[in-house]
Write a structure and sequence with these properties.
The protein has 99 residues and is mostly helical. The chain has a domain of 67 residues. The chain is 77% helix and 0% strand. Helix 2 packs antiparallel against helix 3. It is elongated and about 70 Å long.
């Protein structure tokens, strides 16, 4: 029983220490992480979007499909670009040594 209690205390200490270490390393605003999460969800939704060709018997024209695909690709690129800018902002704060 004592070994089990010691193992539980050791595990709890490790988890708390790891959490504190992560909090100290990541000094940026957690809303940046939330923004990246939201953009990841947006990217998944945009990627999953279809013109309806797969689900209807009335397919769109090849021109419409091409325009759809082109604009969906642009949207995904914009989301990726935004995620990179947010990650760069977070990294800038995390690497600031003036604290």
């Amino acid at each position: 029983m004592t070994r089990r209690r010691s193992a539980i205390i050791l595990a709890a200490t490790f988890v708390l220490g790891t959490g504190l270490g992560v909090a100290l390393v990541q000094a940026h605003d957690v809303r940046l992480d939330e923004a990246i999460d939201a953009l990841q969800k947006a990217a998944a939704l945009v990627e999953a979007a279809r013109t309806g060709t797969e689900t209807t018997t009335d397919p769109v024209s090849s021109q419409t499909q091409h325009e759809f695909d082109r604009n969906r690709a642009k949207a995904l690129a914009s989301i990726e670009d935004a995620m990179e800018h947010i990650a760069a902002a977070a990294a800038a704060v995390d690497s600031d040594g003036s604290k």
